[in-house]
Amino acid sequence: MSDFTPTEMMTIAAARALTNDDVCFVGIGAPSAACNVARLTHAPDITLIYESGTVGTKPDVLPLSIGDGELCDTALFTVAVPEMFRYWLQGGHITTGFLGGAQIDRFANLNTTVVGPYDHPKVRLPGGGGAPEIASNCGQIFITMALSKRGFVEKLPFITSMGHGEGGNHRERLGMKTKGPTRVITDLCILEPDPVTKELTVVSIHKGVSREQISENCGWAIKFAGEVIETPAPTETELSVLRDINARTKKAHEAA
User: Fold this and answer.
1) Between the chain's N and C termini, which has fewer beta carbons within 10 Å?
2) Which UniProt keywords apply (predicted)?
3) pLDDT for 2
């Protein structure tokens, strides 16, 4: 099937990264769409957790925020936010965190705080919320963001969520025992950190996308792996599930 948008490709490629055995801390927006597509296709037994304390939630429509009633209504159970972070997250019970961000650098550090100087920013962003703790304490982190020079920048004005810091073994030197970001899924390609330097490297390119497009849309001199594959196109089932949940979400939010 060839009739799909770059955003649909990104969401489906992100969904494929998840497995049935994952206990996943879900971010709002693109991460939420990807996680629920995974749940409705190849990973029906995945456990989705949102920051508001909902565990094992199975929303019929995508939430607008972590406090959306749909999450609590469809959860196996709901715990207090302090329990969510102190026991579930910091206790090492969550295998995967799925995050987005306004900006990212070559070592997968994320910025969701400010664009420009902190004291006099050009843009004041929503802030970290629980993302810094998710990035530090989940077994691994997947990140989904559209590839653009505005978002993929040479140097972050502020690091909200730690990725691989300055690269290499920086996480280990800081005493962090989790893997950190292991995959970044964009609308043009998929990146993974180099095993040694931890610099993000293109490992898969979506159908119809050129290396030149990727380089032109990145704020640093992006590197390509020795072997780069073509990302498999979305299947009819994957597209149908994604479009159905987006249509239900649009209808529900318009009615509200």
Assistant:
1) C
2) Transferase
3) 60
